[in-house]
Amino acid sequence: MKLMGLSQESQWYQLFEKKGVIEGLNIMSERINVLRTKAVIYPPQDDILRAFDLCDFRKVKVVILGQDPYHGFGQAHGLAFSVNKGIKMPPSLVNIFKEIQRDREYNLPNHGDLSAWAKQGVLLLNSILTVEESKPLSHQNMGWQTFTQKCIQWLNVYADGLVFMLWGSSAQKLAVEINTEKHQIFSTSHPSPLSVYRGFSGCGHFSKVNEFLVSKGKDPINWQL
Length: 225
Prior knowledge:
Helices cover 34% and strands 12% of the residues. The chain has helices at residues 11-18, 22-36, 50-54, 91-104, 115-119, 144-158, 169-172, 205-215; strands at residues 2-3, 6-7, 41-42, 62-66, 122-126, 131-132, 163-167, 184-188. The two termini are 30 Å apart.
């Protein structure tokens, strides 16, 4: 049995149980299901906690923080910045791939599904985990940020040597939750077309992440899809 896409056998589920948030997540799940009777909500119910299911707690090496899910048909599937295969890549994701190509000399992929990153230890976490169709930030007052902020706090306390990639002002607000004596932060502008040239383009974060991971005795991330 899964809770919004999260297996009860996962380390994340066990942590949520230990921290007393399972009841709140069940209530949120029921609330979202009610909203689905009145509007189109993304991602699908079984994908809401997919980022945690694909990247279990002890596997996390890198955290990439997004704001809220894509709000177009077929795009969101529970991973920040990622879209399902066969779906046109949004501009921010295109810019991410362009920076990887520049930084790592990789080929541009023909899809935008970042599941392969998640399975290597990249937690692709949005601060807000659901959205109404065509209404960005429509679920910003539902309480998701409290939950995801707690997840960042738990990673900060219970893990060591993580990399937090904070792109844009929204993600950068969470820097105060991160102990930089234990973890590494790479911060720059958001990869959206409006701000990509304010620092994201040319930031070299993907090489820097791997250099840091190797320095901590961890396997680097293969960013090539």
